[in-house]
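Q: Sequence in, structure out?
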Amino acid sequence: MPQLIASVKGVEVKHVYLHKDRTTLGRKPGNDIVLDTMVVSGQHCAFDLVGVADVYLVDLGSTNGTYVNDRMVKERTRLNDGDVIAIGPYRIKYLQASEAPSTFGGTMAFTPEAPLLQGVFTIESGTSAGLEVPVVKAVTTFGKPGVSVVSVAQRRGGYFVTHLGGSTPPVLNGLALGNDPVLLTDQDVLDLAGTRMRFQLRE
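A: Exactly. Output:
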C-alpha cells in the first residue's frame, strides 16, 4: 500500500497510508492530512490513487506551491518511489509500498514501521525521579516550552531525538544536541535544563 511519511527538520510528524481514491492535504480540518501552518493552503494538494499502487499528485491552486524533488508541480504528476514532496517546512517522502504484509486469519494486515524494542525514559532527578515514561507515539515531545524541548521520533531504525527549541540546549551523554536527529541507544542519558532522563530499550 502506498504511503507518505511527513517530517520537519528530520523529525517524523505524520505517517499516512493511501487507501482512498483521493487523499487531500491542507491546513483546514476537513482534509485527510492536516498540516496546521500558515504556509500550507486551506486545501493545498491531493493524492489520487489509481489502480493498486499508482499515485498522482495534484496541486489544488495553493498559494505557496507544491514541489516534488525541488521542482514545482504545475500539472497532475505521477509519483515515483522515493520522491520527496516539499510543502513549506514539511518534507513528505512517498513510498510506493509498505513493509511486507503479515497475514492474520486469512486477511492481509500491514505492519506499521516501528522499532521492535520499546523505548522508555526513566526520570532520575527532580520531584518526578523514578517515573517511567514509555515512548509510544510516532513523535513524543519532552521538556518545558521556552526553556528546553526535544522530540523523540520512532522510525524503522530506532528512536531519534531532536532539539526543537528553548534557550537551554539539551545535553545527550554530556554533549549538547544540535539541529540534526540523533539515534538513541540503550542507557543514553538526556539532560533537559537540569532534568536527567535515562533512555532504555526493552523487549
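Residues 54 and 78 are 7 Å apart (CA to CA).
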